[in-house]
Design a protein that fits this description.
By secondary structure, this protein is mostly helical. It has helices at about 5-10, 30-35, 75-80, 90-100, 105-125, 145-155, 175-180, 195-205, 220-225; strands at about 40-45, 50. It has a domain at about 5-10 and about 70-215. Strands 1-2 form a two-stranded antiparallel ribbon. The chain is globular, with a radius of gyration of 24 Å.
């Protein structure tokens, strides 16, 4: 399995890290006991004691390592960042670098031009270079940055957006569609397991919003319709 395939698979999955903490039936007294400063030795089950560490009793928070990924939009980094780079190592380094970039305010400046360049290629897959959302059809917009810069800037800000006031959750990219006035809605946005995010993304890149371009892989309701954690059916 090559690196591009791995990135495609990885971009369609949501990683959930669950950290287990020793259980406490915490009332006010318990919280106070957990957070109080060490004042002496701490008894152990075998009757011996431990020396104080100068901190607070209870479980210390973990030390976070370097960021290697983020909750982005599935397939954007894969499809629009060095997509047609012939040297796999170069493409992989570029994709890893974007995943590890922890400064969202700089993403547009760093990646919008690269995204726009690749948007031009996807827009032509249906032999119609005028139907990609937000593309500038003005005759003077001859460069990919000029013609596809608007959508390139939106996608370069590669994170999932939520409308917490929304009352439905039926439309992938709903917040972006509403903000750009392409589809005015009050949906919550984000993504849910049954949403076919790849079909939605591919359709937007090639022909706009309709007709839907499918990758031929349909979601299995039995595997994505769970209502209790971890929500997915057990693997077979």
């Amino acid at each position: 399995m090559n690196r591009t395939t791995l990135f495609s698979i990885g971009s369609a999955l949501v990683a959930v890290v669950v950290m287990s903490v020793a259980g406490y039936g915490c009332g006010d007294d318990d919280v106070a006991a957990i957070n109080k400063a060490d004042t002496g030795t701490t008894p152990k089950p075998d009757g011996s004691t431990t020396t104080p560490d100068g901190g607070s009793e209870g479980n210390a928070p973990p030390t976070l390592g370097a960021q290697i990924d983020r909750m982005g939009r599935p397939a954007v980094n894969t499809a629009l960042n060095n997509t047609f780079e012939a040297v796999e190592a170069t493409a992989g380094t570029a994709k890893d670098g974007w995943n590890a970039n922890a400064t969202p305010s700089g993403w547009s400046a760093a990646y919008a031009e690269e995204v726009s360049k690749n948007l031009a290629i996807y827009d032509g897959l249906d032999r119609n270079c005028s139907n990609q959302p937000l593309s500038d059809q003005d005759a003077g917009a001859v460069t990919s940055k000029a013609k596809y810069g608007a959508l390139g800037g939106v996608l370069a800000d590669d994170r999932l957006w939520l409308n917490t006031a929304g009352t439905t959750a039926a439309q992938y990219l709903a917040v972006e569609l509403n903000a750009t006035k392409l589809v005015v809605n009050t949906d919550r946005g984000g993504r849910t397991l049954p949403m076919d995010v790849i079909d939605t993304t591919f359709t937007a890149l090639v022909d706009g919003l309709d007709p839907v371009i499918s990758d031929g892989i349909a979601a299995d309701p039995a595997k994505t319709g769970g209502t209790t954690f971890p929500y997915l059916a057990p693997p077979k």
